[in-house]
Amino acid sequence: MIGLVVFAPFLCQQASAKPATEVPATAVSVSLRSDDYAITNDEQPLFRITFKNQWSDYVNLYNINAYWKWHLVFLRVDATKQSPGPWSVRFEVSNSAALDHKQLKPGESLEIPVDLNDPAYTFDYENLGPRDGLKTKRRKLPPGYYQISVNVRLDPPFGPGNHEWIGPALPRPVDLFVREAPTVTPSTEDLKKWDAAIDSVKPIFESPGGLWRNGIMPNLPLDKTTTTEDVVASAVNWVQFGTKRTKILRSRDLGVPDKLSAALVMVGKQPKVLVYFFDADIGKWWTRFYDVKL
Fold first, then answer.
1. Which domain range does residue 67 map to?
2. Coil/strand/helix, residue 228
3. Which residues contact 30 (CB under 8 A, 6 or more apart)?
4. Is residue 275 part of a domain?
5. How many helices (H) and strands (E) does the chain have?
6. pTM of the prediction?
7. 77 with 198, same domain?
8. Using one digit for the tens of pLDDT, what is the confidence trace for 129-165?
9. How does residue 99 score in pLDDT terms, banded at 50, 70 and 90?
């Protein structure tokens, strides 16, 4: 991978065991996979953060991969009236994610990949700019030219005298081009196959007694007007599938008396059907995932 690496050191404000003139110094940079890296607007950005120890002793970095705690902003450099931004990444933090702690020797570097196609948590982009008649949030970036700005700050568990670096650091932004994705119309054969996968779970909900309501999936505290895309993202976020990479192939009414909706979703490489409805009695969305075959 070719990086657009420009190091800009930022000094930790914590005290250390070293003399006051020698404090933990760590250079932080943002880079893309190549100079001409671009994505389509049905993809998510992929970049990396590089940490380099510029101190004369070791440095402790705690929760070094917790990028969902950082401030990630995509600034439109060709802003239009329809989608000015800037767009801030807002993660829906649910259950615990695997965290990593590293110790860098003098001169050592560490790369942390940030792949928003398969994030630790599902997320949306929040519009930080003018909102008159515009969307306040969206799941994908609009086409255009952007600068990726990352404000890095780590957790401070060690305390003074433990060689820790916590930031903050605001490395030089990098440029990203988002192209318009080509329109793909599903074939009749695909639609039949997808409908068959959805219909395969119907017998569960046609049985008398309402036993299908049993299960361990949480009821989602989302508004009644929440879109299918947001219900699916929130539901995936609460389940330990080992991936948050999702793609909705088809969504429709399930066709049972209880008026349930269903979405055929690729979660990683596994097809699943999410059945869902808004339960007015509790003001939340009832959801359940079911394994299916394609």
1. 8-179
2. helix
3. 4, 47, 48, 49, 50, 148, 150, 171, 172, 173, 174
4. yes
5. 3, 17
6. 0.82
7. no
8. 876 656 688 999 999 999 999 999 998 877 667 888 8
9. confident
